[in-house]
Every structure is written in structure tokens, then in C-alpha cells.
Amino acid sequence: MVDFKPGYFRERPVSELPPELPEVRGMLEGYYGFNDAESRAFDKFISDTATIESEGGTVNPDSSARGIYQFMTTKGKGQNAFQTALKRTERTYKNFGSDVPDWATRAKKHGDPESLTESQQRDVFLSNIWKQKGTDKLIRKVVGGDPESAVNLYMDHHHTRSGPKDAVRRSEERARKFYGARYGDGGLIRDAYGRTLI
């Protein structure tokens, strides 16, 4: 049914996952077998990343970055991170034996993260990270509450360390401060726009 590459960590066989998995967040929880604390830590990483990326708004006036997770949408070879992430989203759904949702197919045509719902943008963000080489170990450490792994997962597999050195350094310092000391203790719960819920 599902052909994962050897070495991927999982506590539950894919055959034990529910047949209908509505979104990538649930798929990954089943794949990794998160306990309650790990599930909360994973949600905190998602929420913190959304806040880091879009606390100034979901449309970046200085680049083509759009949406809650600020995917670059510039047309041209090697420039459209959103299209790459959508391809990874399709592969994630197929890996779990689920149909690719219509919204993902439509998004490849319109190319606008802003037209997706919050949960759809989260699907794209998580798929984009999960389908990259070397993220399994980092995800496992992140859900264990390790802030350094959260920084590395973000910087190496979402934000990327490309660009001017000063800008990369500032981004990494900001991520380190944000994921930092509060990470292991659970911190505050926020929605994708950074608004404190509790």
C-alpha cells in the first residue's frame, strides 16, 4: 500500500493507520505515534513557525513570499518554493494511500498560497518539510522538546540558509530566540496568525 524508504522512523506500521486521513497533520501523528506531550510540542512548532513567518502579515511587500508560511511564489526555475511544496504535498498524500485533494491540484494552477485555508497551508508546510531528506530525526527531536532541532528544522528545511550572510544570521537569531527557552516547557498556544489562545 505505502512504500516508505528504509530508515524512516515510525512506531506504528502504516497498515494500522486509519484508512481515511483528512490532513497531513493527522497522517504524521499516526506515522510517528506521538504521545500527548509530543503532539503538543509538534503543534507548538507549527504555531511558532507560522508566527515567525507571518507576524508582519501574509503578503511580503519586499519579495514574492505569500501565505501563513511565506512560500516564495516567483515564477522561474528554482524560484517557486510553493510549487515545490505542492509537489511534495501530492507525494505525501499518495504515500499514505490517500487521494490528492482537489485544492492541491487547483493550487498548482493558481500558485497563490493566500487562496488556501489555514489547514491547507499547514498541509503544504508539513508536507514540504516531511518529504525532505534528513527531517525524520529532526522532527523526532522537535517533538521531544529540543529547541536546537526546531531551529535547524526551520532554518535548513523551510526558511533555508541562503542569501546574504547577515540576513541569514538575523533570521537564525530570531528563530533561536523564538523557539528558544520556552520550547521545552510548552510555552503559549497560538493560532497560525500568532494570536495567543491560552
Strand and helix map with partners:
Elements lengths: L23 H9 L3 H19 L10 E2 L4 E2 L8 H15 L6 H9 L7 H13 L4 H9 L3 H13 L5 H15 L19
Antiparallel strand pairs: 1-2
Helix pairs in contact: 2-8, 3-4, 3-5, 6-7, 7-8
Provide a quick synopsis of the model:
With 198 residues, this protein is mainly alpha-helical. The protein has helices at residues 24-32, 36-54, 81-95, 102-110, 118-130, 135-143, 147-159, 165-179; strands spanning 65-66, 71-72.
List its traits.
198 residues; mainly alpha; two-stranded antiparallel sheet; 8 helices; 2 strands
Q: What do you see in this structure?
A:
This protein has a two-stranded antiparallel ribbon. The chain is an all-alpha fold and 198 residues long. The N terminus and C terminus are likely disordered. It has one domain. Helix 3 packs across helix 5.
Described by the principal axes of the CA atoms, the overall outline is globular
Number of strands: 2
Average pLDDT reading: 79
Main-sheet strand order equals 1-2
Helix content: 40-55%
Low-confidence stretches: 1-12, 183-198
N- to C-terminal distance: 40 Å
Count of alpha and pi helical runs: 8
Quaternary: single chain
Radius of gyration: 16 Å
Helix and strand run = HHEEHHHHHH
